[in-house]
Amino acid sequence: MARPEGLYCAAGDFYIDPWRPVERAVITHAHSDHARFGHRHYLASRPGANVLLSRLPGIALQTLAYGERLAIGGTVVSLHPAGHVLGSAQVRIEHAGRVWVASGDYKLDPDPTCDAFEPVRCETFITESTFGLPIYRWDPPQNVFDGIDSWWRHNAAEGRASVLFCYSFGKAQRVLASVDAGIGPIFCHGAVEPLNRAYRDAGVPLPPVRLVSEIERKDKAMFRQALIVAPPSAQGSAWLKRFGDYSDAFASGWMRLRGARRRRGVDRGFVLSDHADWPSLQSAIQATEAGRVIVTHGSVEPMVRWLREQGLEAGAFETQYGDDTVEADAAVADQTASAQDSDVASHAPAEQADERIDRIDRIDQPETRDESIPGANTS
Length: 379
Ligand SMILES: [Zn+2]
Ligand SMILES: [Zn+2]
Prior knowledge:
Blueprint: E1 2-3, E2 6-9, E3 14-16, E4 24-26, E5 41-45, H1 49-55, E6 61-64, E7 69-72, E8 75-81, E9 89-95, E10 98-102, E11 124-129, H2 141-157, E12 161-165, H3 171-178, E13 186-188, H4 193-201, E14 210-211, E15 227-230, E16 246-251, H5 258-264, E17 268-270, H6 278-288, E18 292-298, H7 300-309, E19 313-316, H8 324-338, H9 347-364
Parallel strand pairs: 3-4, 4-5, 5-6, 10-11, 11-18, 12-15, 12-16, 13-14, 13-15, 16-17, 18-19
Antiparallel strand pairs: 1-2, 2-3, 7-8, 8-9, 9-10
Helix pairs in contact: 5-9, 8-9
Bound molecules: zinc ion (2 copies).
EC number: 3.1.-.-
Protein name: Ligase-associated DNA damage response exonuclease
InterPro entries: MBL, RibonucZ/Hydroxyglut_hydro, Xnuc_lig_assoc
């Protein structure tokens, strides 16, 4: 059930992705709106341990392999792949013969950097709904990466750098693992590198990637054939000057919205998301065979309405899970902490602009108010 601290399981006395400090937290994945500092005990998936510890160093972390069962209070808890980012997990809770599953964030599309989403049968399914509107339908990822490759190839042929903005954890590694590394050298921003390292340490193969800051500032020629992967917060910053002539692009599910593309002001928008699109949300929910579905974040109302039309019991929990904005902030924090780049200070205005844009983008979507539906909070 929903408490001010987060989603709470009374039978096991633990929280899932709490946003206020608690005694015992089960973490679905290391994105900063789901994994926060301040809890006494953390439980998360073993494949996600590297990334989680790189973002929250020093936490008291216990890990479970996917599918491994652990008794907590009167419950049995296990974690199952969510296909969202490395280590992302759905939380299965069994209590008195009843099964609940909390999805965290998830996607069904193939992703070489993490385990595929596993449908888990349950009576009650708690689902995200970030892109829970019929307008959100993703092309097959291979088509999107072909598009990124041809944009990069074209720029390289013209002697122009290709700067791709995407979130530093998850999206960046998925892009790195999926583009054609034979087109030219690949560089990344200082905020992306610690995540690359955590992925490699976890055994995820990524192509060789160099840090932009290793290259002398006047050495612009180094970047003419290159793909440069940078967080959205780098957009509009002085950091970009070193590339000379460049084309820029943004990879995000929000690029599906024309207004978002326009306001981003980039040359290209690639529609690439680590969340399930509308058809995938529906098929994932159906695969659980749940009779009751609770929607957490994103387009809550349209999803609840659709679920009720399917004859399911449906409601909403109000949560503080956000979307990409928080991620962009985290990227800046990471970068400031690592201080690998001398342009850190100049990123602050870009970051603010970023937040503003993300807020405007949300207004673009009809019917996305986060509204709790009374009567749903029964657990
Ligand atoms: Zn996430
Ligand atoms: Zn989320």
